[in-house]
């Protein structure tokens, strides 16, 4: 991994997100109907978007693994599932905080929230499967199948507010939102996207390293450990 990616990408994400939060909290005007509560949108909405992007990436990687069996696709599927779960939990928690002053409760089992909860449970199950299956090939194949099945919930999360009666508002667009609110939302979205990419890069590297170690012959691992030990002793 190049130094530019290892240092530059997290730094770019941190700077963009922090400046976006400042913009959303102190510069952007309050919403006409919700007031200052609406400012949670600048963190909540991008987080959910990142979760959906990671779920889509997991689906594509899982499908790719079933077709070509490459360990790189399995590693990317693992990384995207874990990062997506992280952003999903973060987004849903912020949504619950938003729901209390808006709807009067932190949680209600309306279609959007229920489908989001199903999404989180599905990817928790995916990560649990990866943890408890020892055989690398079985783990990769079974995880790919679970990743494809879990993705079936993603369109439901997105379209639930249009398909069924929901407390959650229908998706907005730049044409229906004041430009003073759209610009900070976009800025925060790009910032969290950079952060998500940084997480993916590091998590993918970890997954690749573990897969290589699992597939290496025992004598190779033994030589590697001896080499590391001798290097540490020399230092």
Describe what this molecule looks like in 3D.
With 235 residues, this protein is mainly alpha-helical. Helix content is 80%, strand content 0%. It is built from 8 helices and no strands. It has helices at residues 3-27, 41-68, 71-103, 111-132, 136-150, 153-163, 179-215, 218-234. Helix 2 runs parallel beside helix 7, helix 3 runs parallel beside helix 5 and helix 4 packs antiparallel against helix 6.
Summarize the topology.
Layout lengths: L2 H25 L13 H28 L2 H33 L7 H22 L3 H15 L2 H11 L15 H37 L2 H17 L1
Q: Which features does this protein show?
A:
235 residues; mainly alpha; 80% helix
Can you summarize this structure?
This protein is mostly helical. Helices cover 80% and strands 0% of the residues.
Total number of strands? 0
Question: Shape, please?
Answer: globular
- Give me the Rg, rounded: 21 Å
- Our count of helices gives 8
Largest sheet features? none
Sheet-strand content, in percent, reads under 5%
Distance between the termini: 24 Å
Please provide the ordered H/E string of secondary-structure elements: HHHHHHHH
Structural class by secondary-structure content: mainly alpha
Average pLDDT number: 88
Q: Approximately how much helix is present in the residues? A: over 70%
Low-confidence stretches: none
């Amino acid at each position: 991994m190049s130094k530019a990616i290892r240092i530059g990408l997290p730094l770019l994400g941190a700077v963009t997100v922090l400046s976006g939060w400042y913009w959303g909290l102190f510069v952007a005007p309050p919403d006409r109907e919700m007031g200052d509560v609406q400012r949670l949108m600048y963190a909540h909405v991008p987080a959910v978007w990142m979760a959906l992007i990671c779920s889509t990436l997991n689906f594509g990687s899982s499908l790719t693994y079933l077709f070509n069996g490459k360990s790189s696709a399995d590693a990317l599927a693992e990384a995207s599932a874990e990062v997506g779960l992280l952003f999903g939990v973060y987004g849903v928690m912020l949504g619950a905080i938003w729901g209390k002053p808006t709807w009067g409760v932190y949680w209600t089992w309306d279609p959007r929230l229920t489908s989001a909860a199903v999404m989180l449970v599905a990817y928790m199950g995916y990560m649990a499967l990866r943890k408890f299956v020892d055989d690398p090939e079985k783990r990769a194949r079974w995880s790919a199948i679970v990743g494809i099945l879990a993705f079936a919930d993603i369109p439901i999360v997105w379209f639930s507010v249009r398909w069924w009666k929901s407390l959650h508002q229908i998706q907005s667009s730049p044409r229906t939102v004041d430009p003073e609110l759209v610009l900070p939302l976009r800025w925060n979205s790009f910032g969290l996207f950079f952060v998500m990419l940084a997480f993916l890069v590091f998590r993918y590297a970890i997954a690749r390293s573990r897969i290589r170690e699992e597939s290496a012959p025992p004598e190779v691992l033994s030589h590697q450990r001896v080499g590391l030990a001798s290097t540490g002793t020399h230092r």
